[in-house]
Amino acid sequence: MQIAGINPVILSRLSSLLSNDTVRGLTRDSLLSMDPEHAHKATLLALRTGMVPKCAVADTHQLSTTLAGLVLSNPIGMAAGFDKNAQVHVPLGEIGFGMSEVGTLTPHPQKGSPQPRLFRLTNVNAIINRMGFNNEGHEAALERLLSNRSKAITGVNIGANKDSDDFVGDYVLGVKRFAKVADYLTINISSPNTPGLRGLQSPEHLSRLLGETLNARASQKIRVPVFLKIAPDLDETALDAIADILEKTDLDGLIVSNTTLSRKGVETQRHATEAGGLSGVPLFNLSTQKLAQMRLRVGPDMAIIGVGGIHSAQSAVAKLEAGANAIQLYSALVFSGMELLEQIKTGLIRSVNSAKLNSVSQLVGTNVEDWAAGKISL
Fold first, then answer.
1. Is 164 one of the catalytic residues?
2. What are the tens digits of pLDDT across the range 332-349?
3. Which of the ends of the chain has fewer CB neighbours closer than 10 A, N or C?
4. Could you list the residue range(s) of the whole structural domain that residue 19 is in?
């Protein structure tokens, strides 16, 4: 059996692990025994072929929320980087995610960094990646998005080609290409793996970037919400500068945050010295503090997606309390499996009910000041 270029060895191992009746869905140990990129391809294949079971927890009224005018059946999304080429946005909606984010997509196909470029820090449930925006380019993803709509909210994360002469122009092209098919767009300027990209977070460059991309959005027939994804390594002065710029724009929201260059707390782990961005549990406190700090700066009305280190129902609730309207996962699923989605949904419903609230939206920002001040950690 050969499917879409998947290595037969990967397919054989996937079939073996899925035939085990003692587990639901993908067997974590089997996937963790594979090379990280092979395991990722196997997971995509399982989703595309319907081998991953649906979440057993229904999307109740407690989980329903809104994000920049979009109605989500639940606030849990798959972060960008998982479905780089719009291959599984439909299955992700079917199994129970409230949203998924495709990409990062660049105008032209890009191989990304040389392998190996993805490393597990298993003892601390973390990942270092230097993938380098590997993707099939705008046209391949656009065709899939046009022909297949998901029941979940679908975002498109846009970036710039590494060899581009005009990073801003690449983002403008992304807005024009995907405004007609995306429920929202994300301007990703916070990946550490494209040289010079994070420089777009500086005030001078960010003003031009947002000006041109939002002007491009305004010229489209449909006004698609636009989010800006920022790094967790920005200091408070940089956050102030970003907030000042945002006040002068009609940007719809923020995603806080991308991966970190810091190795705090993982210095002794195998692979800790590899170049790239760190994600997973060690990122949680840093990204959540930055989230809360940005919430205080932009006020209660701007939509914020919280991402970085969510690994349990408790950490999902904490992200909301720190100011996130919705959350995204990725790295934790590598170590905990897709059943984590069910655990988080159950925990969110329990938290809403125990607080005698009606919806997860009422948890948003209830502990923002303590998180911003660094008084809380998990």
1. no
2. 999 998 899 999 999 999
3. N
4. 1-53
